[in-house]
Amino acid sequence: MDEPTTGLDAFTSYNLIETLVSLCRRGRTICVSIHQPRSDIFNLFDSVVLLSRGDVAYSGPGSLILDHFATFGHLIPEQMNPADFLIDITSVDNRNEAAEKSSKARVDALIAAWDKNGEQMVAERLRARKVGRRSSHHESVVTGDTKVQDPTDSESVGKSDDHKQLELSEIQVIPETGQQHGDNVDVAAPSERSSLDTLGPKPPPPKVKSGASPVQQTQILIERTFKNLLQDRLTLWGSLLEVLLLGTIIGYIFFKLEESPSGILGRKSFLYIGSSVQSYLGLMVVIYKLSREMQVFDRERLDKMYGVAPYLIGWLVANSLLYVFMSLVFSVITYYMTGLRTDDMGFHFGIYFATQIMQTFVTIGWGYFCISWARDFATSSLIGNSFFTFLSTSSGFFININIVPVYLRWFQHVSYITYGYRLFATNEFSGIQYACPEYGPTPDPRCNGNNILKSLSFEADDYAVPFRALALNFVIMMVLSGIILHLLPQDGAKHATRRVSKRQRTRTVVPQVELEMEVAASTTVDVDDAATTASAMRVPKVSITLERLTYRINKKTIKKGGSVGAGGGSSEPGAKPILDNVTTSFPAGQLSVILGASGAGKSTLLNVLMARGISVGPLAKPEQTGRILYNGSEVKSKATVASICSLVRQDDNYLLPALTARETLYYAAMLRLPRSMSKKEKESRAEEVLLALGLKDCAETIVGNETVKGLSGGEKRRLSVGVQMLTDPSVLIIDEPTSGLDAYTSFNLMLKLKEIATTGRTVICSIHQPRSDIYQLFDNILLLARGGRVAYSGTGRDMLRYFNSSGHVIPPLTNPADYAIDLSSVDLRNPEAEETTRRRVDGIVRKWKETESQLRAGEEGVNGGDTDTHTQAIATNPTANLEEVIHSRAPAPLSVALPILIRRSFINMRRQPNLVSARIMQVAALGVIMMLYFARIGTDQASVQSRFGYLQQQGALIFVGMLNCLAVYPQEMNLFKFEYQDGAYGVEAFFLSYFVNELPFEIISCMLYAILSVFVVGLQSSVTNFFIFFFLVFACVNTGESIGIAFCALVNSVGFSVQIMSALITVQTMMAGYLSVQMPALLNGINYAFVSRYVARVNAEIEFTGLKFECSDIDKAQGTCLYGTGEDALRLLGFEKQFVFNMCMVAALVFGVRFIAWVVLKARM
Prior knowledge:
Elements: H1 10-25, H2 39-42, E1 47-52, E2 55-61, H3 65-70, H4 82-89, H5 97-135, E3 142-143, E4 146-147, H6 154-157, E5 172-174, E6 179-181, H7 190-193, H8 214-231, H9 233-253, H10 261-302, H11 308-338, H12 345-373, H13 377-393, H14 406-409, H15 416-429, H16 449-455, H17 464-487, E7 494-495, H18 502-505, H19 509-520, H20 525-537, E8 544-559, E9 570-586, E10 591-596, H21 602-609, E11 620-630, E12 633-634, H22 638-644, E13 645-648, H23 661-672, H24 679-692, E14 708-709, H25 713-725, E15 731-735, H26 743-758, E16 762-766, H27 772-775, E17 780-785, E18 789-795, H28 799-805, H29 816-823, H30 831-856, H31 882-888, H32 894-910, H33 913-934, H34 941-953, H35 956-981, H36 987-1017, H37 1023-1050, H38 1054-1070, H39 1081-1086, H40 1091-1104, H41 1113-1118, H42 1126-1133, H43 1139-1164
Parallel strand pairs: 7-14, 10-16, 10-17, 13-15, 15-16
Antiparallel strand pairs: 1-2, 3-4, 5-6, 8-9, 8-11, 11-12, 17-18
Helix pairs in contact: 8-11, 9-11, 9-38, 10-12, 10-13, 10-15, 10-38, 11-12, 12-13, 12-15, 12-17, 13-33, 13-35, 15-16, 15-17, 19-24, 20-26, 22-31, 23-24, 23-25, 23-32, 32-36, 33-35, 33-36, 35-37, 35-38, 36-37, 37-38, 37-40, 37-43, 40-42, 40-43
């Protein structure tokens, strides 16, 4: 397990490690990496491997490690956590040159000593200890095969009354090994207990197959996946909303189709849409959904939790009910609204519904096939988009099957779109004769359903073959996906290489050396530098006071057993307290720390201090009461608070993955530091923070993400802290700054925060597991219990005295912070422990309320008359000029921020080849596929339909633009939200920088598409036509990007956005004019707001104007010579020649949709 205690409070961490040790005693082998183990956790370790920069400094029994280092003169001081001591002596301090030189020499010597004879020394000590233990062998109690822990060995087990030891009656015995196990832990190290084993050899324990069987795995995965599906309500409702919206609009577009030639054309268009569009939307949604879920699958697969087959079966079974229901809803709405055939209704609707279900599951199979090759959405969507274009174009709707090039004709036999369209058409047209009054009173062969099927190269009553083909397609795709997932597992993130930017390569050595020498001159020189910077920036001191602050979430709850209605319930407002009547102060110039167990409200309190609150569901509403005073006065403006305070969030996901640590700080400094500082000063400040936080060795390593391993978790944490330290804010708020850091780095970071506080800054942080020497740095402590209740608030040095006076005496050699967190935590592992600890916590909270009341009344307080009391610290610096702070923290102007953001985003994009290739190849790949199908398009009668199909497919470019946006924009948006909240720059700078970086990729890809379309496919070619066509392609792609920006800004759930956007874009492309010749007046009016309408008309006009078509003798004989000129085709479509108007509308809507995206983004921030 990699750092299992990271992010956990000290109390929960101890409980977790106890559980792991208990599993070890039952025969498991457990290996963990750990950063900051508390002292009693360290005593639970059987074996320890101590690493220093990848080299082994020790490997052996945990009980011998201190003796080993004592041999080399490294004696552990009294009352120090052994883990902290060991990490300290094997760490290199690279904050300055002198410290780095001395610490590196010490570490190298320890590593060299271990390499030389360390293992031999440990083995000798172990043998000596075994001899000593064997001499006292008879002092141990041994009965048969049952062993009882030696009472003299209790030191290694050391449990307080709150952590009950097993009684002999609770000990269970494993007969084969005599090993004990129970609900709690026997922690005697195996290396020390081996000498107590029975003298005779023991038979090996029987091999027991671990883990669940494939059937059990499948059952568990079905249950888990189904629960996860229900919990993700936004995506679930988005799926249902998409089906309802899309089905209703499609049904309305093709409402009650007539028995006429136009009605027959409408039926063919609708049936194609039913087989292709819904499948395409489903494919993109499935790929996006799987791109998130496969991260969990890959991790659990590497842990051998389950196999590929149970996972695939579990996923399908858990999701099958939802997809069947969605298919039913879509089928009912569209079948009856469009007025498909009503004879033998049960049979024909059943075929229609069954086909929808089959296509849905085949789409899922293709989604898994695409994601099995590439886990990222950008690449997998490119694969899916390309394959789907091949499959849909082979369906026979846009281009007759018989004129598809021979080398592509075989795709119809593997295209599930073809088989779906074939089933729909067969079901609708087989054995039916439409009235077609336009052709006279007698039945016309052109309106005979069987003849319509022949024109599509389909056969009447052909049901069995397409159904079998769809079923086989589904099975093949799922099997192929399973094989690929099995043979090509994702073995974790790739390791990033160190990058040296051009700016860094050209930097002279002298300034950095001079800077390091300045830092090396004194261990406290950073304080002086910070003070100098602070003086230059003229940031005043700000103290914060909380008065009876309460924060709760109000929501509707269902009261069971309500009296309203039979079997019903009544709803009443319920409130969940997060913070409860918190009164405390955070004085300027001091380091204030918030302690408490998980769920005590620490992170919420920090967000409330930043005037941000927390995100709640749509059925809940946060309520805040009490007052927050900044220098004695309330501040209502969030912008003002953002100018005063800087917050380091708990997670580091906002960092751009392809930037190095140095680049991240450099660009943050360029954006955040005031304009009064020169570029060189800003760069020096970034370098200073880089060195101060120990990031020198990883300065040229990229941040990394799930697929590319870059900085470690601790390095990312330090980098996030560094970004906020750049500006030297009046109030620095940090949520768990030491989470993910080793003990040594944690101490250095907290020491740095203490130094910042001594310059007059107010530093507030929440901490889960502070080491004992970190505790000595705390000026003020706010201890929160569950429910956000105050258990203590005052100076750090007085906390233990307060608890001693309340009857809670800290045991010797105990970390005060761990003790305080344990004291204020509720043990939820069993009912008895929960009742006992909850009673204790309630008593502590009541005691503090009484003490607080005494303080307010002027009676003797917790400090026993000490002048430095909690109440006296409440109001300091009440007259600081906050307006000056606002001025100094003004957002970077557009002229400054825009070029910086453009360069930063471009570098981040350029170093992610999958995003670059996807942005260009999504459009280019579509053009190549269209070229293969439509190359050298002719001028016969069939070419008219082919041209319709080719121009209609251009609407897919809006989808492509949306997919390009989803591959890049959410990552950029995440960072923008973080920096915007900090007041670094405005919406306009981000919006324009994204557009500037997006533009070159759009121009290149659209140019390639236009070249292939005009000169290879054989559309009417001229210089004018080429550039018009290029502009129209660009308009579609850019509009798709704009829609993506708007919806991603509007809705936090990208999955929900994908579903709604897909439905909206589908409606646009269907209403363009090629598929929907006749529409209801309402939809025709709405269509004027869609860019696809005008793109379709301009494309048709420049392509068909002046074009003449040929009629063969067969066409004349059969009466199918419908088009003599291009104007005949335009008349069929109902397109009027309004070139100038349509072009102006295209340009206006491209700009208008992007403007709407800006308005949405601006309104949401």
